Amino acid sequence: GYLMEHLIPLGMFFYTPLTFEQLGVFEGMGAYRHVLAQPLVNASVVVQGVHDRAYVMADGVFVQVVKRESVASFSVTATKTLTIIVENMGYIGFSKAMLDYTAEYKGISGVTIDGQSPLEWEHFKIQWSCSIAKSWTLLSI
């Protein structure tokens, strides 16, 4: 609902989701949206490489939270869009992973729907403010 109204299109469409760093989004939240070519009915969805927490929405309705380093398959029914909102929970200042840009990215590394990787993802940043934070209840999930 309310948060979805604050997605700011970056004007970027790519075959696969890009990391926040590739998009120039270095803090806060970003989102990825795929417009469905055909409706999904109990489709098996897997969000891969989540850094740090993802909120999956089907046609704007909350479906699932996916946390960092977890691999979960869940069922989705949707007719128009699959949107994944990703929360960047910050960077740590110490770790061997910090030396490897591909290991300590923010965002997601991929998505599969019934074992297939959907192509063409639109990328968004989220205009964050205190009023949005106070009204967004998904953070408490």
Tell me about this structure.
This protein is mainly β. 7% of the residues lie in helices and 43% in strands. It has two helices and nine strands. It has helices at residues 20-23, 130-135, and strands at 7-14, 29-35, 40-48, 53-58, 61-67, 73-78, 81-87, 110-113, 121-126. The strands form two sheets. A six-stranded antiparallel β-sheet has the order 1-9-2-7-4-5, with no helix packed on it. A three-stranded antiparallel β-sheet has the order 6-3-8, with no helix packed on it. Strand 4 and strand 5 (61-67) form a beta hairpin. The longest helix is centred in the C-terminal third of the chain and has 6 residues, at 130-135. The chain is globular and about 45 Å long.
Tell me the layout of helices and strands.
Blueprint: E1 7-14, H1 20-23, E2 29-35, E3 40-48, E4 53-58, E5 61-67, E6 73-78, E7 81-87, E8 110-113, E9 121-126, H2 130-135
Antiparallel strand pairs: 1-9, 2-7, 2-9, 3-6, 3-8, 4-5, 4-7
